[in-house]
Amino acid sequence: MNELQLKYGCxxxxxPSRIFMEDGSDLPVQVLxxxxxxxxxxxxxxxxxxxxxxxxATGLPAATSFKHVSPAxxxxxxxxxxxxxxxxxxxxxxxxxxxxxxxxxxxxxxxxSSFGDFIALSDICDADTAKLIKREVSDGVIAPGYTDExxxxxxxxxxxxxNVIQIDPDYVPAPLERKQVYGVTFEQGRNELNINDEFLxxxxxxxxxxxxxxxxDMKIALITLKYTQSNSVCYVKDGQAIGIGAGQQSRxxxxxxxxxxxxxxxxxxxxxxxxxxxxxxxxxxxxDNAIDVYIGEEYMDVLADGAWENIFKExxxxxxxEAKRAWLDQLxxxxxxxxxxxxxxxxxxxxxxxGVKYVAQPGGSVRDDQVIACCDKYNMAMVFTGIRLxxx
Length: 392
Hints:
Elements: E1 3-5, E2 18-20, E3 29-33, H1 38-58, E4 62-67, E5 70-76, H2 82-87, H3 98-108, H4 111-114, E6 117-121, H5 127-134, E7 138-143, H6 148-155, E8 163-167, E9 176-181, E10 184-189, H7 212-226, E11 232-237, E12 240-246, H8 251-267, H9 271-274, H10 284-294, H11 300-303, H12 321-328, E13 334-338, H13 346-352, E14 356-361, H14 368-377, E15 381-384
């Protein structure tokens, strides 16, 4: 099949809409179920590239949760701790396959942003992963294949209309890519940069000790940034992105946004949150929303009389700013990646508050010496990759 007609473009008024191969060849995808739209395919193709590269870089199954052409989360298939299984709402599913663990991590790091996501999987979707996907609010999934059991599970989702796409893992796109803006055609070489150990060898700080797990986290951060709308910053911990800041005009605002998401990921693991006495009738999405408010500055929106009774069995104590800071001070050994250089040390100051120990960024700012000095102040190890990863 050379082309596929879509319902509409980014918005309902943008018609006609289709995807097609200009060279007359067949599309590298098959729609096994549902009717994906324009934005679905943008998320699917960007997500597939991301997980494919993560798999090549780490040797582990990978998954990503995409929203509006940027990843809300990305991860590789490392086992879940009991705490992570609980905050990702998968503790009741028992032991999960590595691919399912990857998606649980990708989906769970920022569940507010992942709501209604498009999923990309590096490996053939198995039943464990399909069962996890089936219970989440999601628009669709792309993978190189599906087991018969997994496909049957996914076809039951959204009253039979869930979008399931299979992509040819051997597909190689043309070396030049084009798009049109305002009737003008843009052309550039594809970003085929292979992010490997070579880009992580230039350690510019006094601390030059970067363990193997941190090097893997650096690769995850940089590959994730390669497919995130710029400016972008990514915090990674133990094989998964825990905070992604996308599309911010200011680099430090991007660092703050991603850092706040990383903080929220860790705050969800605090006893005050793990032990919240939710009503049994409250669904996962409602619990996520309540947690997001409870750990934020507007906590009285869920704790005020007349409000908490609709969420909790009993009124929880306030999670004070001091208690939150004490908990966050335990977060350590986080990796930070940036798609372009840090122009000021304020980015490092903010990253330090979220437990960052390892940094990967291109370098090349006129204030590199100040950024390095700030890293040295906190005994961070920082790599200059020499590569920029803008994506638009």
